[in-house]
Amino acid sequence: MAAETTVRAYAKNVDQAPRKVSLVASLVRGRTVADALVILNHTPKRAVRPLIKVIESARANAINNHGYDGKTLVLSTLSVTTGTRLKRFNPASRGRALPYQKKTSNILVEVAGELKPKKAAAKAAPKAEAPVEKEEKN
User: What CATH code is assigned to 4-114?
Assistant: First the structure.
């Protein structure tokens, strides 16, 4: 069996409250990547779009950069934390301004799986000699 490690992908400052994103994240936590994407594609929530993007990014990182087998990938960590808060004001009557905060989320996805088996190196066969060029007659 091949070694098992994790590959990460982040999405920072997603313009949605972490409480709403974590509700959707709890649906797919601990599942395989393929199952998670099917579940998210059939979930009617706005928070699905950034989650799909981060999971697909983690899968692409694992396959293309680290040589993992795409069929064995499992979501080992899926955490949603609070991002930066943007302080804004709503105009109110009598010239007042009522403060509010726009909440953002940070999403961390770690996928674990098995490395692709390395191809067996070709046996040391003697190299074929390059063909000898014929001399030209002048």
Answer: 3.90.470.10
